[in-house]
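Worked example 2:
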Amino acid sequence: PSSSLEKSLLVGDYLYVSKLSYGPRVPNTPLSMPLAQHTLPLVNTKSYIEWPQWDYKRVPGLGKVKRNDIVVFNFPGDTVATNYQQTDFYSLAYNEGQRMYPNPVNMDSLTRKQQRAVYDLYYNAGRNLILSNPKMYGDVVVRPVDRRENYVKRCVGLPGDTLEIRDAQVYIDGKPLENPEDMQLNYLVQTTGPYITEDMFRELGISKDDQAMVTNESLLMEMGLTHRDAQGRLAPTYDLPLTKKMLETLSANKKLVSRIVMEPEMFTGQMYPLNLYTKWDRNNYGPIWIPKKGATIKLTEDNLPIYERPIRAYEGNTLEVKEDGIYINGKKTDEYTFKMDYYWMMGDNRHNSADARSWGFVPEDHIVGKPIVVWLSLDKDRGWFDGKIRWNRIFKWVK
């Protein structure tokens, strides 16, 4: 449904997914309506029965998740507001709470403990707002792992890796990772005056959803996009996802394009984890260590927010931070041994992808399978007699 993996997978691609590739899971909720992920159509009720619920088990598969595999997985968030199904609940609550306290806090002047108190204030305020407004936000429900939304991303980080992003380049254990051939980044494209035609957008492969116009003149001036047309108006400026080849094509068209600059970071939201003050953004993130089954880490004020969600939400422990230290399952400790492997998933459309940079690690029990082939592809921007069926993608292998 989204462009996060373009150009590897397009909006409107229908996929066959092999559950044998990584081993089929034993269902957490065995009593359910077939072909309904979590909600029955029309009646809009749950498609599964809560009891019984079985623990995570996986039948041996043909292999394991490898780096650069495209993977289907359940969204790593147990809680959802039903009117905001595609939004991470924790991000939604945090952002709504932050809007309730519009005066910015200078985090640089606060200790880690004080910073955590501010983040807790935002989250709890937003959570209470959502719970008290079901008409606006919908019911807040907690879903079993196998009933959460299906997502598809590329695995760039494996258990035990240390991942870092510098200037939009992913590094694994200090070494640059080979980028997908058609990786996209967002750029502000200012023309010499005319608008970009629909035919050119089609030729470039940019969907209508991604044809965003930028009209904020102060931002354009700040970015150095100052070209004016014959009437003295700022020339049209687009915010577009471009592959390296698309960028070169537009840059070479001097008759149409005045200037191209990378989209500024003000266009992005808060990075994972929400309750840790960092200066990370989409293009510069980490370093962050990806948990590995059986590995033990020392817990500190600086890394607890990163690993708190896996410890509490994914591995079922209670975790409290008290005046005298960290308590897990009622026992004071400064270390934790992980029970599962975790993965770092990202989209090829790097600036238009809500991925691990937004919601963190994907646990092994969330892995569904590997998409093998596109069996149908429909372009929602075209009519049935105008190329709606992408015939060149039918039975195209996913890689």
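Residues 28 and 293 are 21 Å apart (CA to CA). The chain has a mean pLDDT of 93.
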